[in-house]
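can u do me a favor
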């Protein structure tokens, strides 16, 4: 696979390891999980046994501390196999990255533990009236002595019904709007914390998506990440990183759609001629392959920027925008080429197409990405 750089021998070995895992644990159940909407915990446990339950956890707490390039490689492989499973397993990265950014040594030691032991983490930012506008968060955190008391409702929380650890964003000062947002670590067993409605989704059905309810949830003041008012900054920094991972998954989805379509075209005869001999199909495949590789280069360029500690916020938004739109288009083109068969449940492309639709919506809609990109351009930061 040609890139502006190549994987290290260690990354190639890890890629083989992930592909072996996929063949053993994900491929055999992908269709069943899509039908019943529940990913067995045994998959996460097996992922944990591979040492991959929390990719960014630092070595000092027993984690693998993988760089962004390696994380992107893993998420691309998982996205290729099943985007729902990739979303479920990838939820730990978004949750844990916030702790990595702002957690003190004691917080990291205590709260990376459950994730490394094979439990899910969840990132609880979105609310019924605060989706793209994170500053409109209405969940509150009131300081009472050595505790905070949290009240509010979150929605569309990935792995929210099965997580052991939550990063919850709540307002500690409503008068300050977005600048009054703070981030907290909340454990699953806290009284008053519960999962509400479980969403019955069109795609990514292996992932658990729920409403999260906080009713007078008391947590120690030591569970505040950073300082009061740091929440918006931490959310945006976490999402910058998360958008690269979503884009990597999108590349995996697009590659799967392309591969499914190529195999169909190779074996299809239309009007007495192999479909592969018809330029209308062949040229479309060429365009699809070019788009997939362009997206891949954007992902790994962004990963290199992040690992080099260079500004990458604008690039992350551009990558998420391009790759997710590209994945939806490639899946759609594949279904068009495959015709009526592609629309049936017998064709895996039908599932790929349903899964792909979420990509432009979660972790910041593509309209939000355009706002980020345009803002950077017009401010002249270029970042």
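np, heres the sequence
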């Amino acid at each position: 696979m040609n890139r502006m750089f190549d994987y290290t021998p260690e990354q190639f070995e890890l890629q083989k390891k992930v592909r072996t895992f996929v063949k053993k644990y994900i491929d055999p159940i992908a269709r069943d999980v899509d039908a019943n909407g529940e990913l067995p915990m045994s998959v996460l446990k097996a992922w944990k046994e591979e040492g991959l339950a929390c990719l960014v956890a630092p070595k000092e707490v027993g984690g693998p501390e993988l760089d962004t390039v390696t994380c992107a490689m893993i998420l691309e492989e998982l996205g290729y196999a099943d985007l729902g499973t990739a979303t479920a397993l990838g939820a730990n990265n978004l949750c844990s990255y916030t702790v990595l950014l702002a957690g003190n040594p004691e917080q990291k030691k205590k709260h990376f533990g459950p994730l490394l032991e094979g439990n899910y983490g969840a990132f609880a930012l979105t609310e019924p009236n605060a989706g793209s506008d994170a500053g409109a968060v209405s969940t509150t955190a009131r300081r009472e002595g050595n505790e905070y008391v949290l009240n509010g409702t979150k929605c569309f929380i990935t792995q929210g019904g099965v997580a052991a650890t939550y990063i919850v964003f709540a307002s500690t000062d409503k008068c300050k709007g977005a600048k009054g947002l703070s981030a907290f670590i909340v454990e699953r067993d806290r009284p008053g914390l519960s999962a509400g409605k479980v969403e019955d989704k069109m795609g990514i059905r292996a992932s658990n998506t729920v409403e999260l309810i906080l009713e007078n949830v008391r947590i120690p003041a030591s569970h505040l990440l950073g300082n009061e008012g740091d929440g918006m900054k931490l959310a945006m920094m976490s999402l910058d990183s998360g958008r690269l991972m979503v884009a990597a998954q999108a590349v995996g989805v697009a590659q799967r759609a392309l591969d499914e379509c190529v195999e169909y075209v190779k074996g299809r005869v239309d009007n007495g001629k192999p479909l592969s001999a018809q330029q209308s199909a062949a040229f479309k495949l060429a365009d699809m392959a070019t788009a997939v590789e362009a997206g891949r280069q954007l992902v790994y360029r962004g990963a290199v920027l992040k690992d080099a500690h260079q500004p990458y916020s604008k690039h992350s938004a551009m990558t998420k925008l391009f790759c997710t739109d590209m994945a939806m288009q490639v899946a759609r083109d594949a279904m068009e080429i495959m015709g009526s068969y592609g629309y049936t449940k017998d064709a895996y492309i039908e599932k790929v197409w349903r899964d792909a639709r979420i990509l432009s919506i979660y972790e910041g809609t593509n309209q939000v990405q355009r706002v980020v990109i345009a803002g950077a351009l017009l401010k002249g930061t270029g970042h």
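The chain has a mean pLDDT of 93. hope that helps!!
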